[in-house]
Fold this protein.
Amino acid sequence: MSSAAQILLHAIPEGQELPVWHRDVERIRQAALGIYRLVRERLATEHFMQPHLVSGEDLQGLRHELRGFLQNILGRCQLVLEEEEQPETVQCELTSIMEHAHACVTVLDRNRDYIAPERGIDLAISPPTAKLTLPFDDEEEARAPISGATILVADDSAGSREVLGRFLTSQGHEVVFATTGREALDRVDEMDFDLILLDLVMPEMNGFEVLRALRLRRKLRYTFVIIISGLDANANAIRGIEMGAVDFLARPIDLRLLRARVNACLERQRLRERELAQYFTPELARHLHRHPEQLAAGRRVEVSVLFCDISGFSRVSERHGPERTIRWLSDVLGTMSACIMEEEGVLVDFTGDQVMALWGAPHHQPDHADRACRTALAMQASLPELNEKWQQEIGHPTEISVGINTGDAYVGNIGTPQKFKYGALGNTVNLASRIQGACKYARARMLATSNTIERLTVPIFSRRLARIRVNNINAPVYIHELEGADQTDPWHRLRTEYETALQLFETAEFRKASSLLGQLLDDYPDDGPSLLLMSRVVDELLKKNSEGFDPVWELPGK
């Protein structure tokens, strides 16, 4: 192996810029020489010829060192052959090196049960018979690796860290290193990892001690650990897996096998994250997968809750049948869901043609009211594009109604132990649902309670429409219509004059309110809230006296 590496190094013409593989081949040569020195200085000594001086621990340590050298050789060969197209000479020599390294691995495997010298060591190395297929075959290339994971490599060998780090980085992962067991635990306490590659033989704390500490910290419930070690596989693999590791890879590792095992672990993790992504953004789903304690128990917290309902769903269903209706509904709800996710909301539930979302939990969002209102405006802004696609097909425009409320609620798993469902319960949620239902009575598209408007950190255009009392909730609440107007929009005049008329109505100055609303309706004859307020004013004017007047509007239904 050393000679083959030297052939490649000596073949580089003097004065020519060194190729990118030069450093790796030099490291391969040094590792091969390391094996030679280890065999000469350790195995070929009288110490190993005297049974009473040799322990199983001595032999395990020797095999561990040999496997470390072979890992360095095989790993670097694979990296060079995979990273870029190499000249045929380089491919042939590196393939030859790998074949002989695998032959050495065979010798180690054949003698892994050897304990005492009197049983004899079989050092016969058979010539390699099978050619390796490198680089990776087409089938393996077609299975694209899962990328974007954060992986901790805990290994005291600099060469092993470099090989593993380069390989994992080339697969699109972020790699963090630890050189001791204690440092590995410190890294785990400092940040979250998707996967840990853990060596067993390390200073300060060995791999088993690290596993035990991870289990006590309850990290193994969501962080996969693959043991990578040059120690004898059988007993150590069983012990490691019993302690919580998901896999054991004996050095030297075929990087193709490592990639497959890493992908398998990450795929299992992504399945859980995809389950959480039904409710949360991908980033939050990953965070909650790593911190399941945040979902384990419910808590009371201030949130903003939004309900969005699609108008005319029953009419479309009756007219067009289930197939077209489902396609339309899926597109509309998908667009509304995207608006929620864009503002990092929790997608709580779909109920027929209605979607529910919340902000403020499970992670703290001080601007949860702003996010809910911006989502409502984004939903409304998405309708022109949806109508361009669907109006001709379903025969009428797609319209929505949105209700928002803010307040304390119980948040957590509102499903069952068998069926997880993250959401919120309480009067805040019930009122938000009623406010969405109030849109049809108030003749408005988007309504928010004063609870939400008062908690905005950035002003959003709105006008106060009325003080209402909804079914089954005694306390009255002000409702505000949201509007995506700009500074030059005439809507601001409409808002100012309407709110003045509403104030006159609430103080029982009905004639003044009627006069102002009449002028307003001359300019805005289609403004639904103004027409509604005018009808309420007229009703009061027609009464013989205003004694017992209550400005609170009792909604006629849900």
Summary: Residues 116-144 have pLDDT under 50 and may be disordered. The longest helix spans residues 313-342.
